Amino acid sequence: MVALAPAGWSRMSNETSAALKSEPDLASIPMAGGGLTRLAIARLKSAGVPVAPLLRRVGLTPELIADPEERLSVRSQIALLDEAAIALKDDCIGFTLARDFDPRDIGLVYYVMASSQTLGDALKRLARYSKVTNEALVFAYREGNRLIVSLNYSGVPRHSDRHQIEFCMFAALRLCRLLTGQSLVPQHFSISHHRSGDNSEMARFVGRKVEFGADADEFGLNVNAREFPLIHADTRLNDLLLKYCEAALADRKGDMSQLRTRVENAISTMLPHGRVLAEDVARSLGMSERTLARKLSDEGLNFTEILQQLRRDLAVRYLDDRKLHVSKIAWLLGFRDVSAFTHAFKRWTGKSPRQLRTARAY
Question: What is the CATH topology of the domain spanning 258-359?
């Protein structure tokens, strides 16, 4: 998938173009590959619903939809799903599409997940690369007493959406099942917007009650699920796809603002000096710790998660340099000793630093 070329903007209606130009910064508008929009259009067409009027109402054109390489604004996708739900008389259109779609339509993100070794690895890939498909999506994955998969929005108001978030949540659970070949039942499944009426079909799909009006959009799996092997695991293919994902990620606008990059840059300079504290990073950025935490939260980010992800990414990069001794890498990442680094690295990757270095040598 490629970023929307300047010519693509001319395909939008004059009304939408004018609306976009009224925004303070065009570069801040999150874009999506449009796969979900195209799924909804296909469903509308199969039901015999004329799609041209719906497209006009949300500022899209048939030409834009017909070209799978063209990207469109996330807000247009959310609006289109609202229109499709009304036209199809399906107020659960996101859930309906998530239950039936071909996961391969996700593209690169699906394949890098599917070729991973374990479910934990696949979910880490989802968290890192979801913005390749949709720049507004901020998936997060964390391990504790449970495996938690959560979803936040960047650049788009969460309250403006129901159907896209439901698609993403149910699709993520379905992917976990398809990739492992196991009928995984979450220990909890929550969605932050409210929904009235009969949700029994969703509950049957999940395997338990879906909690609406919750504090977060997330679901939790048994912690042991992180070690489940994937059906289509392929280490060599995964290594290759990771390179493509990193290149695609570099072409995206990242976290819409440059805050994460600024935080990462500040952390990287402090790592060799020992423990990195949020208050020190905030001070280096000219703000209080509370302000930094709020700004990160607004973008669905968390300081600790950024720190750990950066440490993990840097560790893998450093290990590729065989001239760097493991003890030196531990120091560069701010660990007091090699054993602490080894323990953390095993938690991140399931391998010791030496095991990963050996595996990547072939």
Answer: Arc Repressor Mutant, subunit A (1.10.10)
